Amino acid sequence: MPITELLERNSKKYGDETALVEINPAVTEPQRVTWNEYELIQPISDVPFRREISWAVFNEKANRCANLLLNRGIRKGQKVGILLMNGLEWLPIYFGILKCGAIAVPLNFRYTSEEIDYCVKQADVDVLFFGPSFVGRIEQIANDLGKERLLFYVGDSCPSFAEDYHQWVANFSSIAPKLNITDDDLAAIYFSSGTTGFPKAILHDHTALLQSAEMEAIHHKTTHDDVFLCIPPLYHTGAKMHWFGSLYTGGKAVLLRGNKPNDILTAVSDEGCTIVWLLVPWAQDILSALDKGEIRLSDYKLDQWRLMHIGAQPVPPSLIKHWHKYFPDHEYDTNYGLSESTGPGCVHLGLENSDKVGAIGIPGHNWQVKIIDESGNEVDPGDVGELCVKGPGVMREYYKNPEATKETIKDGWLLTGDMAKTDPDGLIYLVDRKKDVVISGGENIYPVQIEAFLSSNPKIHDVAVIGTPDPRLGEIATAIIQLEKDTDCSEEEINEFCNTLPRYKRPRKIIFADVPRNATGKIEKPKLRELYCGDRLVEKQNLS
Fold first, then answer.
1. Please, are residues 187 and 2 in contact by the beta-carbon 8 Å criterion?
2. CB 3.0–4.6 Å: which of 92, 338, 397, 476 could bond 61 by disulfide?
3. Where are the beta strands (DSSP E) in 192-281?
4. Are 287 and 261 in contact (CB under 8 A)?
5. Are 239 and 233 in contact (CB under 8 A)?
6. Between residues 536 and 175, which one has the greater pLDDT?
7. What pairs with residue 80 in β-bridges?
8. Where are the domains of the chain?
9. Exposure of 350 by Cβ count < 10 A (0-12 exposed, 13-18 middle, 19+ buried)?
10. What angle do CA 501, 504, 509 make, to 5 degrees?
């Protein structure tokens, strides 16, 4: 069934129950707002900005959006872009797009005007919803975009080059449009994260979205009573597909606009969150704040918090060991995936394998996995090869890019570009990105392994390892190290710490600097190569 039917079901079964809560700690409001048709307001002094929406109102607002789009000429298969910060408007608009048979195209909130223009045209977007944070960027390209597209502004004080979404949508029916939408219909275009170049448009159907919802609920044993805390941006498959577990079970979810340790723990405490998905930097920040006494667990109500899971990047085992010192009863899972596989979960550790921290785990629900060599043959257990996945969440194609599609999907198998191996128990370990491997003097060096080792040093807050040019060895492993705040550490200390590593794995160069990460927590290695590889053209930065 199309994923929109889950929303219809929740509206009928759990209509008056809370579906979504939005919290913005950066804004203090003298009132708490319940977002429904009549804008009921309950005075509460000096609390963070908070809104909530029921399943029934969520569905009604999605229907109004769908009917607005149909009225403005949008038909099945056309593309509608979303450029919004996380908030209560985001998901009703997303589902409104799907309910009118169109294809939703979420855009990265960090995109520049040039990137927005590129992605809108690459995906053939006919309508673009955008919010207050993007007025300046859209204004720079509005004359061009607006010639062939509808621009809907979602917020107060609508700019002159756009139409006021809230003013228009209120005039349309809250009854679902009568359209025949099937599992095989196209549903969404997501853009690759751009860590290897300009983003590619990834096309998914309703089958893939529904698969991710079912898989999330099964993997994390999500029930209707669970409360999910969502912090990452909803434009990304990782955030939305984890939230799909709440959609699948009709449970409450909290959209937190902030990732400071106190904000996270306060949201967990106040909203009764039971499942929290964190990125590695946020988990590290929480642990650092606890270590320094900046926050105390006794100040929060956390007994109901049962599961902490991490995705988007390899997880240092030392981090989880440290986490369990403060949260010994937490279940733990790590989720591997990519936008081409409808986000996280095609491989996951599994709650039953939490003692295998360091592995990405086993094939996810309804997924198959194999590891192949350069000739396409499966490697022996323990040998390193490219990870390939196959299942109902594999993308249809890279939109308008048949060459890249052909290179990435072979006989139904998605080639991930990640190097992996299995252990004697059959668990899969991620070794590194294929294009991130450092070849030094003919020896393959996998930066992830060095990063995991260095992360165990308590003075190191974050670390990235890249290959930098060397006249003799071709390239050498260089570690960019971000120290804990107010911590001193010398290059000599790092070199001494690395003495337990095999000699060829020891970083040859140490740089103390911040480690840049994108909105989904991935290290921006192309940016580091630009900074530290001089004028050398690095093949790893080319579009994959």
1. yes
2. 92
3. 201-205, 227-230, 252-256, 275-278
4. no
5. yes
6. 175
7. 104, 127
8. 54-205, 451-541
9. middle
10. 90
pLDDT (0 to 100) of residue 44: 41
* Spatial separation of the C-alpha atoms in residues 362 and 428, rounded to whole Å: 6
For the domain made up of 451-541, give the CATH fold.
GMP Synthetase; Chain A, domain 3 (3.30.300)
Tell me 220's DSSP state: T
Distance CA 319, CA 283 (A): 8
* Phi, psi dihedrals of residue 21, rounded to the nearest 5°: -125, 135
| Residues β-bridged to residue 128 | 81, 151
Confidence of residue 122 (pLDDT cuts 50, 70, 90): very high
pLDDT tens for each residue of 158-175: 999 999 999 999 999 999
Structure tokens at 153: 């502004």
Give all strands (DSSP E) within 224-263, no chain letters: 227-230, 252-256
In whole angstroms, give the CA distance from residue 347 to residue 344.
8
Give the DSSP per-residue string, 459-511.
Answer: TEEEEEEEEEEETTTEEEEEEEEEEPTT----HHHHHHHGGGS-GGGS-SEEE
Among 462, 471, 478, 367, CA closest to 412: 367
Region 54-205: CATH code = 3.40.50.980
- Reply yes or no on whether the pLDDT at 356 is more than 90: no
What pTM did the predictor assign?
0.82
